[in-house]
Amino acid sequence: MYTKLKIDCDKYFYITHRKEHRGIGGIFFDDFIVNNSWEQTFKFVEKAGIATLNAYKIIVTRRKDTEYNE
Questions:
Q1: Which of 29, 32, 39, 70 has the greatest count of CB atoms below 10 A from its CB?
Q2: Residue 7: which of 29, 24, 23, 22 has the closest Cα?
C-alpha cells in the first residue's frame, strides 16, 4: 500500500507553479478505507502510527547529541 499512498501524497502536495513538492514526504490517505472495513482501516492507521513512533525513536536516539546553533 505504501507505493500507492506515496504517489497520492506526492500528487496532493505538489506545487505546480513552483514545480516542487512541499512537506517532508510520507503517506497520504483521504477518504480511505481498507477492504470496506472500518476495523481493518483502524488497524492500518494504528500500525502506521506505531511504525512512525518507532522510527522517530531511532532518529532521536541517533541524533540527540548532534550539535546545533542558531
A1: 29
A2: 29
Burial 26-43 (b: 16+ CB within 10 A, else e): ebbbeeeeeeeeeeeeee
What is residue 66's three-state secondary structure? coil
Rounded Cα distance between 64 and 38, Å, is 38
Query: With bands split at pLDDT 50, 70 and 90, how would you rate the model's confidence at 10?
Result: confident
Q: Give the single-character DSSP code of 21.
A: E
Q: What are the tens digits of pLDDT across the range 21-34? A: 888 766 777 778 88
The CA distance from 13 to 11, in Å, is 6
Say whether pLDDT at 48 is over 80.
yes
